[in-house]
Design a protein that fits this description.
Blueprint lengths: L3 E4 L15 H14 L3 E5 L5 H9 L9 E7 L11 H8 L4 E7 L2 H8 L3 H17 L3 E7 L1 H7 L1 H13 L4 E6 L6 H14 L3 E6 L6 H10 L4 E4 L13 H10 L8 H4 L2 H11 L17 E2 L2 H9 L17 E2 L5 H12 L8 H16 L8 H12 L6 E11 L7 E10 L2 E9 L2 H13 L10 E9 L10 E8 L4 E8 L2 H21 L3 H13 L1
Parallel strand pairs: 1-2, 1-8, 2-3, 3-4, 4-5, 5-6, 6-7, 7-8, 9-10
Antiparallel strand pairs: 11-12, 12-13, 14-15, 15-16
The structure holds zinc ion.
Length: 536
């Protein structure tokens, strides 16, 4: 059975307490969700805030190959005619093929929150759906508080669905908005709805009772074929159904087709990618995709797993893009890297020594706090350097930076950088808004004559994380920087106990990588790199 996946990380997910994405982040997340094979990407609420509006305005930059972009909003306000309702108009103007709108199913909400009659609410639903259908949209109707509404008054809750259905809604999505419904009860209600309506029934479950994934799966068993949630389970309060677990369970256990078995291997890397952009640490014990999901520590477990992994693993970790880890020896990650190089015939391009060196380098870097899954750029550079040892574009002689503050004006930073390159020694100074900005400007000045192409590399985002907060100010920091040139985006990472040094390393990696790429466009290396970020 085909079940459609609807990810709302960029809308409901951002309502989670610590989740925040810039517009640039949102574009990257959407691109990643598309790569993963998600059917619908809910990008935000264009009528509610300028950031979401900008996201839709820039959505043309996305290269979506599969997913249908969706704008979210509510049924029209009671006092506005539908064609004059700003929120509804913003939905049309967002220019997406799909619109999801929520309406009230619970009489308590209609009377208390909206302050209108029950009949009037039905008119709001039906007029809004009709209007959007007239504008050629695929309409997902989110029946807010459906299960609570149904418990309070099943007849009325069903009438709200009838209003949406008769007006042409393509999906009737039942929402457990407060997340309080028990699984057996929820399945019963989905069955009733399934029996009454043809077309696609959806489920949108919140996790307040820790049942969102179970409720979503039960809804599918009861006839729903459209599942909403967020990768990593982000969302308001306790979050939405974790779409990663929903997808893995549907694909691997419930014999449903969602993103397909091939794309499933991109699941864990996509979850890590999104956590990283959100600047949140992923829960290690997150089922299927967490770092510990297939980590074996106990002696008996380890020896059994090494003989046959099925002894202590419910699925093979590779199918969801995760890896087995044996904590006593901690060898698996590096084995995986080698496996990936071999798979693409690149291991042969590295002799035994180079391969060992690469593995040692990665091992040391991971030990030092680098996370290469999140920084494809840095990993790609390592592979390219190992394949072309001795390629040097420039050497840094020294760099120096200082910041002046005080008085009334803003602080300024001055930097000096000396670089040795093929055409001689370059020493430049520059002033920037901050120390990293000043260094970045300096380095570009030093290299711009010899390598004018690096002007294309733009810094898009900059994130710092403290790695070991127990050590206070002596803690190491990890700086993750996102870059973009005319046709791709990538991240690099630097780790140090000095934030400037960590930033500088990430900067060096970005520039060196661009130069490596420009001097050898080898698609197979890129492929291996992509696969590393998908597979380890
Ligand atoms: Zn929700």
């Amino acid at each position: 059975m085909r079940v459609f996946t609807f990810d709302t990380t960029l809308r409901d997910g951002t309502q989670g307490e610590h989740v925040s994405f810039s517009v640039e982040d949102k574009l990257l997340v959407a691109q990643k969700l598309d790569e993963l094979g998600i059917d619908y990407i809910e990008g935000g609420w264009p009528g509610s805030n300028p950031k979401d509006k900008e996201f839709f305005a820039r959505a043309g930059e996305l290269r979506l190959t599969h997913a249908r972009l969706t704008a979210f909003g509510s049924t029209r306000f009671a006092r506005n005619p539908v064609e004059e309702d700003r929120n509804v108009r913003a939905l049309v103007e967002a220019g997406t093929p799909v619109v999801s709108i929520f309406g009230k199913s619970w009489d308590l909400h209609v009377k208390r929150a909206l302050g209108i009659s029950l009949e009037e609410n039905l008119v709001l639903i039906s007029e809004t759906v009709e209007f959007l259908k007239r504008h050629g949209k695929e309409v997902v109707y989110d029946a807010e508080h459906f299960f609570d509404g149904y418990a309070a008054g099943p007849e009325y809750a069903l009438r709200t669905l009838e209003a949406a259905h008769a007006a042409g809604a393509d999906v009737l999505c039942l929402c457990d908005t407060n997340g309080g419904t028990l699984t057996s009860r929820l399945a019963e209600v989905v069955r009733v709805v399934r029996g009454r309506f043809d077309g696609v029934i959806g489920i949108h479950a919140h996790n307040d009772s820790d049942l969102a994934v179970a409720n979503t799966l039960a809804a599918v068993e009861a006839g729903a074929t459209h599942v909403q949630g967020c990768l990593n389970g982000y969302g308001e309060r306790c979050g939405n159904a974790n779409l990663a677990s929903v997808i893995a369970n549907l694909e691997l256990k419930a014999e449903c087709q969602t993103i397909g078995s091939e794309k499933l291997a991109g699941l864990a890397p996509a979850c890590r990618f999104i956590a990283d952009l959100a600047n949140l640490t992923m829960r290690n014990d997150q089922p299927f995709v967490g770092k510990s999901a297939f980590a074996h520590k106990g002696g008996i477990h380890v020896s059994a797993v090494l003989k046959d992994s099925a002894t202590y693993e419910h699925i093979r970790p590779e199918v969801v893009g995760n890896g087995q880890r044996v904590l006593v020896s901690d060898l698996s990650g590096r084995g995986n890297i080698l496996f990936k190089l071999k798979q693409h015939g690149l291991a042969g391009r590295l002799d035994e020594n180079a391969r060992r060196e690469l593995l040692e380098r990665i091992k040391q870097m991971e030990h030092d706090g680098y996370e290469l899954e999140a920084a494809e750029g840095t990993f790609e550079l390592l592979v390219r350097e190992a394949i072309r040892p001795g390629v040097r574009f420039f050497e840094v002689g020294s760099y120096d930076v200082s910041t002046r503050a005080g008085g009334r004006g803003p602080s300024r930073s001055d930097a000096t950088v000396t670089v040795w390159a093929r055409d001689g020694v370059h020493s430049e100074t520059a002033t920037g808004h901050g120390p990293f900005h000043a260094l970045h400007l300096c380095l570009r000045k030093c290299l711009s004559d010899l390598y004018p192409q690096i002007a294309e590399v733009r810094l898009m985002d900059y994130k710092v994380r403290v790695l070991d907060s127990r050590k206070g100010t002596a803690a190491k920091v990890r700086v993750l920087i996102e870059w973009r040139d005319h046709d791709r985006a990538w991240s690099t990472v630097g780790v140090s106990d000095n934030v400037i040094e960590a930033s500088w390393r990430a900067l060096m990696d970005a520039i060196r990588l661009e130069l490596m790429r420009l001097t050898e466009d080898d698609a197979s290396i890129e492929k291996a790199v992509e696969d590393y970020s998908w597979g380890v």
